[in-house]
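Is SN-glycerol-3-phosphate placement plausible here? Inputs below.
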Amino acid sequence: MKLFVDSGSLKDIESLAALGIIDGATTNPSLLAKEQKDPREILKEICRLVQGPVSGEVVATKADDMVREGREIAKIDQHMVVKVPFTRDGVRACRTLASEGIKVNVTLIFSATQALLAAKVGAAYVSPFVGRLDDIATDGMHLIEEIVEIFDNYEFPTQVLVASVRHPIHIVQAARLGADVCTCPPAVLDQCFKHPLTDIGLEKFLKDWEKAQTAKV
Ligand code: G3P
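Reply from A.M.:
I modeled the complex. Tokens:
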């Protein structure tokens, strides 16, 4: 399963990319609004750092404007993926952009029918928001299970990109269900490095080694 970082912070993305665990990145207007720099400069820099698919989202709401904006986003870098919201206009824009060879990530997906319609108009990715479903007592991972099953049944090339990830268990569940990508906030990826038994084990190894070296002196 590919791991993307869900962030507009160049500092966070740079440190994670340096570890070699990142295959791409996703952004959204809220994440980019937190940063000071020009959003297009940030997207260009993220492409340089991750050398993989980077999603940049349109803010237009009418299909023709989304298509115009999407073509501009695609020109930022060869790695750019255009993100459009799942609305009627978003579906129309996805169809047009995909027909022009532009990769589209249809976002704000909360049902299997939304994912199916996005796949039918040529979306390269669909982004179901598991955390926001969990927030309203709806099992977000059950949606992933449904979408993976449907896409496998009909061999849709559309990739399932698990979004709105809140904790490492979402990553484990996504991988076990066979999702293609999981996009995670930097804090969740940081959590994946932590395990108390690893810390305790390493400490004992080093202590034993040190003791042995001292005993030899
Ligand atoms: O970028 C899309 C999504 O991952 C944001 O999710 O719920 O953390 O705002 P959330």
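Short version: The first strand starts at residue 2 and ends at 6.
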